[in-house]
Amino acid sequence: TKEVCVPETADLALDLTVGAPGTPPTRRAAFDGFRKALPKPLGSEARFQWSEGGFRLFIPLPASVAGQDPYFFPLTDGAINYAAEQKVTRNGDALIVETEAGGQQPSLVEGVLRLGDGHGLFLTAQPGVVPAAAGGGWQSASAILAALAGALLGGLLLNVMPCVFPILSLKALSLAKVGGDETGARKEALAYTAGAVAICLTLGAAVLALRAGGGSAGWAFQLQDPRVILLLILLVTAIALNLAGLFELPSIGLGGRLASAGGATGAFWTGALAAFVATPCTGPFMAAALGAALLLPVPAPLAVFAGLGLGLALPFLILGFLPAARRRLPRPGAWMNRLRHVLSVPMFLTALALAWVLGRQSGVDGMAMGLAAALALGLTLWWMGRGHGEGRFWLRLAPAAAAAAAGLLFVPPANQGKATASPLAGEPFSETRLAALRTEGRPVFAYFTADWCITCKVNEKTVLEREEVTRAFAQNKVAVLVGDWTGGDAAIGRFLESQGRSGVPLYIHYAPGKPPEVLPQLLTVSRILSLTQQEN
Predict the structure, then answer these.
(1) pTM for the complete prediction?
(2) Distance (Å, rounded) from C-alpha 195 to C-alpha 268?
(3) In sequence order, what E strands does 2-100 have?
């Protein structure tokens, strides 16, 4: 009853002979009916959000699947208040179950979702961010605003990345040439913003489309394809050589044909370029914001992706609309050429890092093909830069175009499921291995990385590879699991999604007998060492 509940358990056993000759057809038909009535496993993981007094469950379920009076029966004891009313609402291709929380916070929730007519789904839910029900008032609005604010801040921080900062710097200094032309400055600022927002919206729409088709794509999904990495190598190499003064040609952000229409066209493509080359980065605020956005109903995720582009363009937008900020820029002069040469250095380093990523994805052969294509491009641009005559522009570009096309066609595919060499002597991540280690009672440190993730590599080089960290983990027998998402491993993508994330890095500490602890995206040695001290 609602007032009294007496839990009971019993061990039952029955010996059955499977497939015995002469089994009556009526009995076989009865067992077939029993099997048909068993709950079917849900194809993807659900997620839950537990708090004092409240429990929300997010169940991926296509809108085409009809359910009559759905109800969730938990297998995990104490997760919810069994007598409380359940509110089940549709949220796009998902169901949201809201009810009162139980007496203890679970680390995992299992149960059966009743769909009516004797049909049910068995599901497993991991902790994560769960949006409020569609039209859920202030909670849904606050979730959207929080994700939008995180995207704005994350996009703003992308401007300090080595592949974006030179582009922003040169474009900002170009406003110094505008002088008192307020209309021209504002046009350029708006065009730059439009380019950045357009690329972010395009990539965001592609992510949503892939996920709607059953994929596990996240932010920067295109970087899991070696051909995109090769294209980025060529693009960044061309920009670096231009900044270094090797050639002067019509280019995307440095004047010429695309910038002829009062600078607005050039500004648009510069913003688009900055957004595209910034996709390897998932920094503070940004990852959590994009992860939460992917749980919200459309069009909220698109608004968050647009916010990311707006944050990326915000510094240039401020310079365009605030004359006082523009007046603080140094006056144009010969020093700008020297600055261009200096700014070519981080672009060359970015090209080198991308070549390393290509080698990690496609091996030595892939890296060699990428470097050969970059060399062909450099020689072609140098040759073109020394010549004259616009009529032969594309003809002179043919050798580099042929080398790039050959690289894109024949670059080896990414090595799926490849495990990154762990600085902590870890092993490849799998949910099965994680469950086994937790059953043994061992502390586990799981981290998820990708070769194209700058934040991941900074954390690994400055924190995880430190001798004191390695020694502390070994002394306390902390198991390390490494999830490498460089090649787009689908299982890792689903796990990231279950944690409310759309990309890497992600760091989780599993202490025996305690709920999992998600660590900040920027690690410190003291924070990591404190995990081992908790085990003592």
Answers:
(1) 0.53
(2) 4
(3) 40-41, 46-51, 54-60, 71-74, 87-90, 94-99
Backbone angles phi, psi at 56, to 5 degrees: -125, 140
326 alpha carbon, distance to own chain's centre:
35
| 245 CB-near residues (< 8 Å, 6+ apart) | 337, 340, 341
Residue 1, amino acid: T
pLDDT for 23-45, tens place per residue?
676 776 777 677 767 888 776 77
Which ranges in 162-299 belong to alpha helices (H)?
165-174, 182-212, 226-243, 264-277, 286-293
> Which has more confidence, 141 or 421?
141
- Whether the CB-CB separation of 457 and 8 falls below 8 Å is answered with no
- Of 11-25, 138-152, 310-324, give the range with the top mean pLDDT: 310-324
H-run or E-run covering 428: strand 427-428
Amino acid at 172: A
Kindly report, residue by residue over 283-318, the tens digit of the pLDDT: 555 666 666 666 566 677 888 888 888 988 888 888
Q: Reduced to 3 states, what is the DSSP secondary structure of residue 515?
A: coil
444-449 sheet: strands from edge to edge: 427-428, 479-484, 444-449, 506-510, 517-518
DSSP E strands: which ranges in 370-423? none
Q: Could you give the maximum distance between any two Cα atoms of the chain, in Å?
A: 98
Distance CA 326, CA 177 (A): 10
Long-range contacts from 319-327, C-beta under 8 angstroms, 24+ separation: 319/172, 319/175, 319/185, 319/189, 320/175, 320/185, 320/186, 320/188, 320/189, 320/190, 320/192, 321/185, 321/186, 321/189, 323/180, 323/182, 323/185, 326/175, 326/176, 326/178, 326/185
